[in-house]
Amino acid sequence: MTREDVLTLLLAQPDRPLSGEAMSRQLGVSRAAVWKAIEALRQEGYVISSAPNRGYRLESAPDRLREGELSGRIAHCRILRRVACLDVIDSTNTECKRRAMAGDPEGLAVMAEEQTGGKGRRGRSFQSPKGCGLYLSLLLRPRLEPAAVTDFTAWVAVAVCDSIQAACGVRPRIKWTNDLVLNGKKLCGILTELGLESETNCLEYMVPGIGINVNHRPEDFSEDVRAIATSLAIELGHPVRRADLAAELIRALDRMYRSFPDNKQEYLDRYRADCLTPGNRVQLITPTSRQEATALAIDDDFRLVVELPDGARKALSAGEVSVRGMYGYV
Ligand code: BTN
Prior knowledge:
Distance between the termini: 45 Å
Strand order of the largest sheet: 3-4-5-9-8-7-6
Bound molecules: biotin
Helix content: 25-40%
Number of helices: 10
Number of strands: 14
Largest sheet: 7 strands, mixed
Radius of gyration: 22 Å
């Protein structure tokens, strides 16, 4: 762990060198252990300068998601206080569920450099190439009825918009129900999974999973997805440090979860402001049908109110239907 702790200390003091002596005192380890950690970090691509009698300074860091990059920056979070950064995993959602079933308490964020079986909604897969995206899931245990968390993914979508705005200065829009869109293309998907106690039907855990396309180039997407997907790097024209975005994301999710479900009106208002679906002609898609409609509004339960060709109006929930634009993805 010393390596992560040394990185946290170096990141906390970017302007001045930090002496090996001070680090060993703060961490309660030997100077030799600090030196070994510095060498290991250098091997991994961290550029750490050292001046005799003054100490070490972090000059530049590779774009890696790791605990030492994040722990200092999420120290003020009240619930999301633990992070696990993995190299490769089947799915961060599945890993959170495994940990939930093993009894881990709530408040853990799991992220991975690569997912080999990233999951999307409706049994689809979510492409998760190595080092390109931010693939992150949370282990939460809200003391609520399952019916009280049906709109949670919509709250997550608003928090993800907040984090992207804070880290990158652009605010994506939300395509109902929970895809984030930038310049008409999909930037992020969200999948929330629940664990229920079979006897009582009580909520045991809730795992929202967020996949943001961060530094993908067009060729990092498969051909079929390329037409509708984009990444922050493609849209902004420069790469984005995933650790910076991850820190903003965890902070925004912590803030949001603390106000869930009490501040519903605030998140509903913000969801309505971010959502671009109302006002558009859309196709309503179920596993067995497609139907045209006009999207009118988001109702007080985050459902999409649509008008059908016969003039009838109805409110749709995310479980019932997904929506596509008439002439493209949005
Ligand atoms: C969708 O677009 O249908 C939802 C995609 C959700 C992807 C994220 S990536 C992190 C987490 N782990 C998964 O396997 N899926 C979610």
